[in-house]
Amino acid sequence: MSEAADEIFATLRQSGQSGAPLYLQLRRSIEDAVRRGLIGPGDALPSERDIATKAEISRVTVRKAVQDLVKGGILVQRHGSGTFVAPRMERVEQSLSRLTSFTEDMARRGMAVRSQWLDRGLYAPSPDEMMVLGLAASELVARVARLRIADDTPLAIERASLSARVLPDPAGIGSSLYAALEATGNRPVRAVQRISAANLGEGDARLLDVAPGAAGLRIERISYLASGKVIEFTRSVYRGDAYDFVAELRLGITADETGRGA
């Protein structure tokens, strides 16, 4: 690491006349070193004090550059251990045109899947759950929350809500919620999803092993039975550095346009 560090600092000194803020120059120097393979996944960075001394800049400047790189997924910080180059992660692509479970998705890719249960229980419904699931205030809602992990990498936090009439014993779910619903004839056949960008809060970031404030994807999904009845209300958070959602788009042809072409 010492030779790579020397080159980073040399590059930083050479770029000192660029006029860009010093923290930005340092960030770019470290990013360039990672891109060129001078420092690789798992390599430790020198301490903030050492970087500040060798680069002849303040520790506040170093800290700002490092925090930017942690939020960008280039570096990771481990409490009590230091700062390291983040492991390279193969991004997962998920189609938006198929309604599948996380377990089915990852198994199709040959990835080993496991879940860490965060919550399985019956509760009084929230106003949102009452509205979406059509529940009365006197009814109960089943909540199932899991950290979804593939090949030992935490990828998503899924928090699903269903009527307790549909899922009276959430603690009895095995590895797949959809498999449990299919066994009772309640597996959804279609869903509407809303995807938005989000910066991960401290709790979710800790579960997903990323820095607080890191980029994430927030997904709200309402799933339906063939009858049109809402069966599931899910709010999930995905790692922004690991997930791509892919949709196929087709040219739409209206009925009027079809008639004119006849």
TrEMBL record:
Q: Which UniProt keywords apply?
A: DNA-binding, Transcription, Transcription regulation
Which Gene3D superfamilies does this one have? Chorismate lyase-like, Winged helix-like DNA-binding domain superfamily/Winged helix DNA-binding domain
SUPFAM superfamilies this protein is in? Chorismate lyase-like, Winged helix' DNA-binding domain
What InterPro entries is this protein classified in?
Answer: Bact_HTH_transcr_reg, Chorismate_lyase_/UTRA_dom_sf, Tscrpt_reg_HTH_GntR, UTRA, WH-like_DNA-bd_sf, WH_DNA-bd_sf
Q: Which PROSITE patterns match?
A: HTH_GNTR
Q: Does the keyword Transcription apply?
A: yes
Where does the source fall among the domains of life?
Bacteria
What Pfam families does the entry give? GntR, UTRA
Q: Where is the HTH gntR-type domain?
A: 20-88
Annotated PANTHER family: MANNOSYL-D-GLYCERATE TRANSPORT/METABOLISM SYSTEM REPRESSOR MNGR-RELATED, MANNOSYL-D-GLYCERATE TRANSPORT_METABOLISM SYSTEM REPRESSOR MNGR-RELATED
Q: What is this protein called?
A: GntR family transcriptional regulator
Q: Which organism is it from?
A: Ollibium composti
